[in-house]
Amino acid sequence: MPRYLVSGISTLVSDVAAVLQEHGAEVEQVGDIADVPRVCADAGPDAFDGYVQLPASFTVDGDTAIQRVHHFFADGVLARFPAVEAALRALRPDARITFVLGVLPAEVSTQDDVAARAALVRVLGHAARADARNGLRLSVLDAGSTPKEIALTVLGRGGRQPVSELSEESYAEWRMELLGMVWAET
Description:
Elements: E1 3-7, H1 10-22, E2 26-30, H2 36-43, E3 48-53, H3 65-75, H4 80-90, E4 91-100, H5 111-131, E5 137-141, H6 147-154, E6 164-166, H7 168-181
Parallel strand pairs: 1-2, 1-3, 3-4, 4-5
Antiparallel strand pairs: 5-6
Helix pairs in contact: 1-6, 2-4, 4-5, 5-7
């Protein structure tokens, strides 16, 4: 029986988990993204066939727009990184990570913000592929994806067209760009 780790907003986690369970999967549900490292450590290596990272609950804080956006990115979007790092240790070879983008309150959401968040998630996906043992498959779905569309993508059975499916070619291009930005001093 395939086993998946699903984290994010509790109601969305349970909705996606229900669809996965209808398709014969076992699901470990995590309502707080900060708990993912502990859950993965408890599960051990090769425990999951995939990880679904749904939007997390987050309260935007700050007196100015700059403070609110900084807080959201520093404590919100970047919280995805340690969770993925922990999940990698608990994923089987050829696992799939599916990222689902979230929706922000109007006071901090702009077209540039949406593009920036999507880009950061793709950067995270490429970094995960660089650290993965082998065969890691990655998908990024937009915020309008239904639990059924998310679950079918996780299972590799179609569903909603991903915002991006990070291929080996896009990983190679990302790696070259990243290495091209490095200035090594000896």
